Amino acid sequence: MTTIKGVLFDFSGTLMRIESAESWLRAALDASGTDLDDAEIRRLAAALERAGALPGGSSPAELPGELADMWEIRDRDAAHHRALYTGLARQVPLPIPELYDALYERSMAADAWTPYPDAAEVLAQLHGRGIRIGVLSNIGWDLRPVLRAHGLDRHIDRFVLSYEHGVQKPDPKIFALACDALGLAPSDVLMVGDDRTADGAATALGCAYLPVDHLPAERRPDGLRPVLGLVGTAGQSADEERRTSHS
């Protein structure tokens, strides 16, 4: 049986969840000193959500033609990422133009993100077992400060972020980069993520894959915990670890 010696976690929808579109808009309005009544905030938030303007949120209900090409490469470059998401937000008329950049800045703030309830426990247990841990994310900005603010970075050995390498999942190259960063062969690595197309592509390289559901944090209290049943201590398979613990 193959021994899993390392685990790669996706970020958004896997380890952490972005806030709701309404919370996101309210924070940007507060940051810009803009007052709107509650009904208008709810209306604009719903329109922004339909536009797919919240990074880590819903995909656009209808992608504008002029942004279609950028959508496909949005996570390969920080400038593309910002241009794409501010461009999507601009499909919705807002009271002041400064709000579009304020919204994008908010999406990178630690307060905009909530860890899934079992994330800290799972990372800590894996770390304690000697398992190598990486974060492999399609993203256009540096997520390290967000994980640091929530106390999750202490258990993570390596970060492989698409915009830093100019390549994004499901390209096998980024999985190879991540396995190399952990110092492990793909057959020794488990990929965990909510996107069965992008994250699941790790299997083409020889990694194992565990899907999780992209749900609000409060609705997925233990989606990461199955990882612990698949991963033993370094140098042991999960079956071997169970036999040892019961001997």
From TrEMBL:
Keyword vocabulary terms for this entry: Hydrolase
InterPro entries reported for this sequence: HAD-like_sf (IPR036412), HAD-SF_hydro_IA (IPR006439), HAD_sf (IPR023214)
Keyword Hydrolase in annotation: yes
Record-level Gene Ontology MF annotations: hydrolase activity
The UniProt record lists the keyword Zinc: no
Pfam family, one: Hydrolase
Protein name as it appears in the record: Hydrolase
Organism listed in the record: Streptomyces chattanoogensis
